[in-house]
């Protein structure tokens, strides 16, 4: 099978973790007899340096001409002085919009080997396996009007949270469809006691739930959901939420299961899927060889499953990651004081080796 991909390494640790993810992808392609067609393009700060645009035209064209896009990370403090339309993060938001990816899937799994690495007690976190389904093209990140006005000392900032019924309906249906293949529970997260957007969200989600009688629906305010995520994480199956709430809760979920460096994501809904680790560009550790590449590697597994429908190939990566962690290998973010961490490259090498060593029979699906 031909796998046409656009690769956007981006900024900070993005190129480092993307490099290891591609090594794993190449090993899987070799093992299963696929051919890769890769187009490397710039985004974010890297694109600003090269082309003075956080999302150049050739990046958009290449992405739209591919079956999937693999992204590293965007962002760097050196661009904080730039106007908002030219900041690296704007390139990512505009890419999501150009691809039409409205559903962001962020699984958070507590690997058995990492139970002791969670800040929560073992009996609380053991067995955590949840999927955050985050609406990606609405809410405060895209609403209008938005502005920063006035002189220093008297400035007023305006951001607008906005959702249409159709936007809520489509993300809700995505969550319920995914829940049917998991444990058949959806928890919808909002702030309906305060926000009109959330009241509409709750009403529409409740209506969509009637189409899926086999799936149990519950509602939680976002502050209660944040508390429950650290007090009883194993009770969650699929968490459905709007853009900003999902952004925050998924980072929290990373801490619950041991490190945000473990979390992959898939952005779906358009003709081209976008895959990226949940962590940011982490410029403070860029170039030091200590970043965790597993979030990027597991994002490749999600890409194989959702964009190419290659479940066996995706499972081979997931099982390889689990085997490497079970063997005791840890990057710095995962290592306890008495453990010697491996480098970014060494962790990638261990996963590549495990891909070739494990049998091809698919087992438990990790990525949702």
Brief characterization of the structure:
The protein is an alpha/beta fold and 368 residues long.
What features would you highlight for this structure?
12 strands, 2 domains, 17% strand, two-stranded antiparallel ribbon, 368 residues, globular, alpha/beta, 12 helices, 40% helix, Isopropylmalate Dehydrogenase, 10-stranded mixed beta sheet
Explain this structure.
Helix 1 (14-32) packs across helix 10 (294-306), helix 6 crosses helix 7 (196-209) and helix 11 packs across helix 12 (344-357). The protein has two domains: 1-106 and 257-368, Isopropylmalate Dehydrogenase, CATH 3.40.718.10; 129-256, Isopropylmalate Dehydrogenase (3-Layer(aba) Sandwich). It has twelve helices and twelve strands. The strands form two sheets. Strands 2-1-3-12-11-4-5-10-8-9 form a ten-stranded mixed β-sheet, sandwiched between helices. A hairpin with a 4-residue loop joins strand 11 and strand 12. With 368 residues, the chain is α/β, with parallel strands linked by helices. The relative contact order is 0.17. Helices cover 40% and strands 17% of the residues.
């Amino acid at each position: 099978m031909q796998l046409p991909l656009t690769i956007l390494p981006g900024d900070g640790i993005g190129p480092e973790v993307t490099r290891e993810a591609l090594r794993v992808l190449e090993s899987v392609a070799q093992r299963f007899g696929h051919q890769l067609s890769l187009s490397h393009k710039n985004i974010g700060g890297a694109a600003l340096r090269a082309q003075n645009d956080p999302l150049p035209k050739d990046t958009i064209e290449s992405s739209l001409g591919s079956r999937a896009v693999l992204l590293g990370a965007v962002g760097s403090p050196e661009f904080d002085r730039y106007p908002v339309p030219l900041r690296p993060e704007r390139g990512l938001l505009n890419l999501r919009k150009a691809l039409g990816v409205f559903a962001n899937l962020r699984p958070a799994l507590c690997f058995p080997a990492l139970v002791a690495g969670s800040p929560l007690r073992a009996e609380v976190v053991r067995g955590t396996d949840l999927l955050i389904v985050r609406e990606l093209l609405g809410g405060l990140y895209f609403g209008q009007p938005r502005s920063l006005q006035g002189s220093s000392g008297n400035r007023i900032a305006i951001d607008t949270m906005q959702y249409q019924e159709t936007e809520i309906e489509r993300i809700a249906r995505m969550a319920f469809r995914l829940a049917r293949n998991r444990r058949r529970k959806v928890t919808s997260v909002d702030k309906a006691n305060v926000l009109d957007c959330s009241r509409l969200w709750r009403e529409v989600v409740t209506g969509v739930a009637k189409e899926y009688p086999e799936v149990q629906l519950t509602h939680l305010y976002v502050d209660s959901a944040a508390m429950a995520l650290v007090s009883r994480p194993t009770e969650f199956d699929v968490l459905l939420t709007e853009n900003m709430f999902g952004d925050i809760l998924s980072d929290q979920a990373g801490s619950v299961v041991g490190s945000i460096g473990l979390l992959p994501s898939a952005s779906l809904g358009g003709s081209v899927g976008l895959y990226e680790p949940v962590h940011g560009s982490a410029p403070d550790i860029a170039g030091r060889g200590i970043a965790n590449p597993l979030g990027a590697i597991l994002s490749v597994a999600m890409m194989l499953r959702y964009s190419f429908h290659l479940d066996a190939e995706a499972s081979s990566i997931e099982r390889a990651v689990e085997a490497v962690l079970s063997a005791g290998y840890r990057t710095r973010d995962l290592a306890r004081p008495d453990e010697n961490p491996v480098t970014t490259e060494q962790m990638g090498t261990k996963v590549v080796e495990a891909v070739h060593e494990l049998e091809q029979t698919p087992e438990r699906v990790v990525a949702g």
